[in-house]
Design a protein that fits this description.
By secondary structure, the chain is of the alpha+beta class. Helix content is 53%, strand content 14%. The protein has five helices and three strands.
């Protein structure tokens, strides 16, 4: 069961894209000066252009000065980056997810997820199921 569920999840395009962005972010963070980590977020890599949003203009300006060096360091790590482009998107102006009504998880689904989680080996999928179960604890 665990293997089938993780295979199913990893085959979803959105999951693959999120995983790829996560890997890119980790690689970007390794070449990013420590003081800027957490202030610059990778949003895409398309046709050799790594697009990054920064939390404020000062950080974006400083990183623009380092953009070619960052691209070179990423290339040395095997990331196909020709150019790093930076944009400012302050944290408070990022669109927040709309508040939605908490949907009830059917009891049968809750039990199925609970059973699957107890049978799985430790890993990301098991943690995700446990998080889902904790979110719907009141059901």
């Amino acid at each position: 069961m665990a293997q089938r569920l993780s295979e199913l999840l990893s085959s979803l395009p959105a999951v693959r894209q999120a995983q790829a962005l996560s890997v890119l972010q980790k690689q970007f963070d390794t070449v990013l000066p420590v003081r800027f980590r957490g202030e610059a977020q990778v949003v895409a890599l398309e046709e050799g252009e790594l697009r990054v949003i920064c939390s404020n203009g000062a950080i974006a300006s400083r990183l623009r000065l380092e953009a070619q060096n960052l691209a070179s360091q990423l290339q040395k790590r095997g990331v196909p980056v020709r150019k790093v482009s930076l944009k400012v998107q302050p944290v408070n102006s990022r669109k927040a997810a709309p508040q939605s009504k908490k949907h009830q998880l059917p009891a049968a689904a809750h039990e199925a997820f609970k059973s699957a989680a107890t049978q799985m080996e430790e890993g990301e999928v098991k943690m995700a199921l446990q998080k889902l179960l904790n979110h719907h604890k009141g059901n």
